[in-house]
Amino acid sequence: MSNVGTPALARLAELRGELGRIRPDATTVLTAYAVLLYVVPSDRRIAPLGGAGSLASLLATAALLWWGWHQINVATPVLRPKIQWVRVGAFTFFGACVASYAVSALTPLTAADASVADLGLVRVAALVGILLVANDGITTEARLLLLTRRLCWLGAAYAGLGIVQFFTGTSFVDTIQIPGLTASVDAGINARNGFPRAVSTALHPLEYSVVLTMILPLALAMAIHDKQRPAIPRWSPVVLITMASALSVTRSALLATAAVFLVLLPSWPRAARIAMIAAAACGSLALYLVVPGMASTILAMFTEHDTSVTSRTDSYGTALSFISISPLFGRGFGTFTPAYRIVDNQYLLSTIEIGVVGLASLLALVLAAMIIPLKRRRSWNTQPMRGLGPALFASMLAGGMILAFFDAFAFSQACGTLFMVMGLCGCYCNIPSKGFETIEER
Q: What residue ranges are annotated as transmembrane (predicted)?
């Protein structure tokens, strides 16, 4: 009996050895970060840690430390481009935030603002950590595609909850109790023109729209180009995210979604373009028939006077008065709190907090992450990697657009998604391609 059992025991020992060699890599860490970011309600915190107490933020901070440890201890050279523009942009942006923090330390701020400045620098470090882990940690095509597929499915679940909230008018999130975490705000569903404004697990409909519109291009790329998988798993995220965007009753989400389709349309095969145009027409008709009044509400958002637009334009005078105090480096990241004014424009807010230097570094980072995937796609002769380049460009375009409509860095899901996608853009350009021939799609 012992001889019969010996091969089985040996195989079991071998499997245990293989499992022991499996260690979490960047894809594993980023998957965990995305789960914590989108599944755990955005208002839940470890109360004593304040604004830095979200589980996703804590993991992002640990990821930065892990990245630093890896850079010091791993001496194996990796073939990378001579200049990694996303990485350079990230360090430049972080340097601008550090300079702004130094200026704020020399400025007579209130005790509350000084505390927020400390927290702001920690938050920026965590965001840059996630970017660097994505940029440097994902080294193969397979791991990048696996993470992209996971993000698409998380986006589908995120959008699905929002759709349920829209049709039921119920948040459901306020019923979730997570031991050790406390809610920082009262969860609830607001309305616009009689329609519920879904938020899923986000704090605000605009934050919800950032996540939707930045994941949508990735879902479209996987649906059209990742043809080794069955059709339903590929297209379900696209359907859910597009539907949620259309029902978001958010002007910026509709504009960003339209921009995504217009930018990606020329990159698709001819058959996919025709099918997508037909699907958009049928979907618009279905929306008009299934949700009475939605079409007129969407039209009114773009044709009638809106107090939210007036509020944004009225903020310019207040913003300029604060910018003039410290135009180069600002007053410190995160220190211009809603107690002063809600400007609803991250670019304007960044100019106040980190100055003209900080704004320039942020714009450079966004543009670098947006442009380099388009240039890099020419070196791929395989799908879906070739189609992922324009998708990353469209994702950054959508995120960059919505930054002009609200103070995104005050919302963890919005800024977390933005920096994670930036890291994916850098990763896309760092992974060695299998060939440098180009192909023409018909």
A: 46-67, 88-109, 121-139, 151-173, 206-225, 237-265, 277-303, 315-334, 354-374, 386-405, 411-431
The domain containing residue 280 runs over which residues? 26-40+49-71+88-176+188-430
Q: What is the 3-state secondary structure (H, E, C) of 258-294?
A: HHHHHHHHHHCCHHHHHHHHHHHHHHHHHHHHHCCCH
Asked if residue 7 belongs to a domain, the reply is no
Overall number of domains in the chain:
1
Evaluate whether residue 395 is within a structural domain: yes
Residue 425 to residue 185: CA distance in whole angstroms: 33
Check if the beta carbon of residue 44 is closer than 8 Å to that of residue 181. Answer: yes
Burial of 239 (0-12, 13-18, 19+ CB in 10 A): middle
Instruction: Please tell me the distance from the alpha carbon of residue 143 to that of residue 84, in angstroms, as a whole number.
Output: 20
Positive or negative, the Cα torsion across 356, 362, 365, 370?
negative
Helix, strand, coil: what percent of the chain each, to 5?
70, 0, 25
pTM confidence score: 0.89
| pLDDT < 70 regions, the chain | 1-22, 75-79, 185-188, 305-314, 434-442
Residue 15 falls within a domain, yes or no?
no
Cis peptide before 384 (omega within 30 of 0): yes
Q: Give the pLDDT confidence of 53-76 residue by residue, as tens digits.
A: 889 999 999 999 999 998 888 756
